[in-house]
Every structure is written in C-alpha cells, then in structure tokens.
Amino acid sequence: MPWHLSAELLSILLAVLVMGRRGLPVSLYGVSKETGLSIATVYRKALELIQLGLLLRLGKGAYIVTPKGAFLLAAYSIKEGRPDVLAAAIKRLKSDWGISDLADEEVEAYVRLLLLGLEKLGRTPVDFCASDFGRTVQVLLPPNFGGRNIAKVIAQHLSVPVEMVEKAERAIARALLEFFPSVKLPDGCRVVVMPQGEYGVRLSVLAAHCKVHGYTLGLKCEAGKALLAEAMRRIFQNNERSFGAS
User: Model pTM?
Assistant: First the structure.
C-alpha cells in the first residue's frame, strides 16, 4: 500500500468515505459489515486513523473522513487508478475546502499539482496538512516567484506543461487569495499583489477575483488594471509628498 498505510487502515478509511457519500450515518458497525473486518479490529484501527488525523469521530458514534484523509484517498486513487474513489474524495475535498462551485476536473487538476509539489519537496500525502485550503498552495510555489507570470512559474517549478496549471487556474487563484493578503479595488475586484523590481516600486498581480472574469491567475480585467495603476500612482504621490514634507 502507498505511503506505509496498511491495507486494513486503507479499507476502513475507504469505507467511511464511500458510506458517507451515500448519505448514511457511518458507524463502526457499518464499517465492519462493509469491510468484513471484525468490530474489534475496526475499532482499534479507527483509533489509529484518528491519531493520524485521517478520521474524525462525531457524536453518537458517527465518523467522517477529515480533509487530510480525503486528500490521502484522492492521492491513492490517482496512484492506483480508482476513479470511483477519486470522485468521492474530490467531492469531500470540495465541501471541506469551500469550493463546491468549482468543477470536479478543476479540483482534481489542483490535487494532481499538489502531489507533484509534495514529491518535489520529498514529502508524502500522509504528512500534508490539507485542512487549510489557502495554505495548500504553498507547495506549488518556488522560493522566489514575484514579478512573473504565476502560471508559467508554477509549471516551470513542477516541470509540467503550463496547460496543466491552467486546468487548475481557478482553484489556484482561490487558494492564493485565501493565503496572501489581498487588496480590494474600487470596482470590487480583489487582487493579490507582489512587489517587483529592486525597490519594489512595481507590482505584479498573482491572483484576482472580479465580476467579469471570476477567479484568475494574474489580472485579466482591463478596468481592474487601470484602477490598480491609479491606486498605486496615488500611493506613490502621497509618499513623495510625505517625504518632501519631512
């Protein structure tokens, strides 16, 4: 089994995920029937899964898979070619990450990029904290990434075609907007900006959310670009006046 998760642990985690997708309350007795494992074994292994942060016990003996557990199962299903498991895991992640409006294909593309990022860092899904959606984007970013096309930066960093990054564009943009401080423009657009140049006198936009284009990497809205330029011009003018007054 991948990442040193035993067959029993994996089968229990899978059972809880699949049974939860059916809308059934997931009890350990139900898991025992689903897997064919004894209730004693299921109870003992469920405690291990809880300690690993992959399973969460709710009230009245019900259990759910955590975001970390769902991410691990998504990784397993990609590795082992289990589209049925992948569909259930992606649905769970979309709910946990608050991105249910995104298509399954977009979230799957994002998960695949995260796995490549973890591999590059020498990490596995078992030690990856998937509960904070915004923070997950960190594994996609190289140490220095300001001032360039962020989609191309990620593609180069992970050694993948830029088209693969573009499939997950909206998910990446959402994560960037959650992780980094953002600026709200007068028209309601929200952008994540990064200082550029030796003295940071120019800004590049990592991600944006606007009424016209939705979530994007970079800023595609021409009106938004004009508003951002005007806002920066005013800031620099105010700084110059303050400097002159001193």
Answer: 0.86
Token pair listed for 30: 């139900």
**Contact at 8 Å (CB) between 35 and 48?**
no
Convert the pLDDT of each residue in 59-96 to its tens digit: 778 999 999 999 999 999 999 899 989 999 999 999 99
Span between the terminal Cα atoms of the chain, in Å: 67
Strands (E), the chain: 55-57, 63-65, 183-184, 190-196, 202-210, 214-217
Q: Do residues 68 and 84 lie in contact, with contact meaning Cβ atoms separated by under 8 Å? A: no
* Residue from 152, 169, 180 nearest 217 by CA: 169
Query: What is the distance between the alpha carbons of residues 246 and 244, in angstroms, rounded to a whole number?
Result: 5
Q: CA 224, CA 226: separation in Å to the nearest integer?
A: 5
pLDDT in tens, 116-168: 999 999 998 988 989 999 999 999 999 877 667 899 999 999 999 999 999 99
The amino acid sitting at 48 is E
